[in-house]
Amino acid sequence: MLYTFREGRLNFKKMKGVVDLSSIFCYFLRILIFFYLVDSEEVSVEKYYEEGKSIRLDCTVKNINEAMWQKDGQIITFGSIVIFDKRRISVGSNWATDYSLEITQMLKKDKGNYTCKNRMSNNADAYYNLKLKAGASIEDNMFSGPEVRAMENETVILWCNASGYPVLSVSWYVIEEDSIQEEKMTGLGINGNMLGIQRVSRSCASKFQCQAVSTYKPEKIEKRNITLIVDFFPEMSVIGFINNKSSSNILYGSTSETVKLSCTVFSSEPFNITWLSQRDKKELGWYSSQSGKSESAGIYGYSIKSNINHNDRRIVEVVLTVLLDTNDSFSNYSCNAENKLGPILKTIETRKKESM
Predict the structure, then answer these.
(1) Contact 275/334 with Cβ under 8 angstroms?
(2) How many domains is the chain built from?
């Protein structure tokens, strides 16, 4: 039993003393062509350089007069002739077949692909990929921005496209304020250009930081802060206080007494809070998260005060103080909060206590 090859596959075939040499020759010819193509692929040698320094790219050729160097496909030397930047570029002549390229006072623009080849046969003798050694850098347009907004339950991608050679690493941190409003940074244990958060919640709204460092200048740490803002509909609670009693619906008081109406809002920024009298639809006072201040409308018998939660400025209490000095002051009062997603309103009533 003999072996023959058909259509590139090995088959068994009984032969009567005759071997189909043409089939075997065709198969081995395919193998030779395959290995020729593999061997002829361009294999670049990566080399790193520093600005202002010199570099030498080795190349040995059979005939210097037929050799040339190309940078990114553009001819820069032709035989012994240097076409571009003769002040910095030269070709070596240490021996008859030496056609090494020498570049002095290296610049940023010198990075790229260099090829030493025979101009007659177009066969390449050497390939180099020059890369500039550089400390880590993150350009202003190369990260997801100082602010990123997202709706609750969305997937968020924060990114930092840093540059730096030869080895670059990017790590992520979250920056939070402690009880005394000092920033505290915590590593997330995540490395890479992107930080993904699935089904983002309002508790994820924080300041994040990406840090990039290169092994070339490890002391140079590039940093970019990204504030994640998570938008959600405002939430509200309203409660009133008078004579050590409290209620979220109706408060009873007597003339000349004072009632305090508290409206606490949890909302994505920016948002506004307004206290209104339902009797005459007048605005009595308001708060703006953008200014962080409250202001009274200046109507006698009404004053306003705001308290911002020190741990989370999205939580604000706005207190309306009402002097129950007239019949009109016994009324329905509404707190209205509104952000970009819409408003929410709750009402509380003050009634005159009946005489016993």
Answers:
(1) yes
(2) 4
Which residue, 167, 202, 231, sits at the end of a domain?
231
Residue among 125, 131, 124 nearest 110 (CA): 131
In angstroms, what CA-CA distances link 26 with 20, 39, 115?
10, 20, 35
| Full residue range of the structural domain in which residue 259 is found | 235-352
- Residue 288 and residue 308: Cα distance in Å, rounded? 11
Q: Is residue 334 within 8 Å of residue 278, measured between CB atoms?
A: yes
Q: How far is CA 8 from CA 32, 39, 240, in A?
A: 13, 21, 89
**Can you tell me which residue has the tokens 């968020």?**
156
Q: Does 278 lie in the same domain as 226? A: no
122, 191: one domain: no
To the question of pTM greater than 0.85 for the whole model, the response is no
When the pLDDT of each residue in the chain is averaged and rounded to a whole number, the result is 87
Examine the domain organization and report whether 264 and 343 are in the same domain: yes
Q: How many CA atoms lie within 13 A of 29 on its CB side?
A: 7
CATH number of residue 107's parent domain: 2.60.40.10
pLDDT tens by residue, 264-275:
999 999 999 999
Please give the average per-residue pLDDT across 207-224, as a whole number: 94
